């Protein structure tokens, strides 16, 4: 059976000014380039379908983009994510956003392995990947970026899931993100 795969990206804290704020959203569902997008443009997000999730979404999946008010309700952002990726997930609106919130636990997994935001610490990329795989049973994809000083930072963690939105699977297509053997995980201020 062919599995449609969706990935969860956890945008990890970045040093202020190191990333374009218009591109920085803390937590979002994303699909890689080889996966379908915009499967049903007529399927608009109905906020009443996710009304019981809005408070939790606001705390765990806000948009920090200045163009969206920088902290207010992120309905427009969530509507965009639903239209672009959710309509291809095979899940309903509530199921899609609930699955995203369930997968938010990645930050806790890293902290449990002693991988926490720090100004000074460097972490082996293999330790980050292993910490996630040990707890979830699935190998993630990792993406990095360079800060203003040229230091490699962990930028996104992609956790791949089966069409049911719950079963984690190994990410089969490695990413060519700008990662080195050791990366920083700086705090976000």
UniProtKB/TrEMBL annotation:
PROSITE patterns: RNASE_T2_2. The keyword Signal applies. Keywords: Signal. Residues 1-18 form the signal peptide. One of its GO terms (biological process) is RNA catabolic process. Transmembrane segments: none annotated. It comes from the Eukaryota. Gene3D superfamilies: Ribonuclease T2-like (3.90.730.10). GO terms for molecular function: ribonuclease T2 activity; RNA binding. It holds the Pfam family Ribonuclease_T2. GO terms for cellular component: extracellular region. InterPro entries: RNase_T2-like (IPR001568), RNase_T2-like_sf (IPR036430), RNase_T2_His_AS_2 (IPR033130). Belongs to the RNase T2 family. This is Uncharacterized protein. The lineage of its organism: Eukaryota, Viridiplantae, Streptophyta, Embryophyta, Tracheophyta.
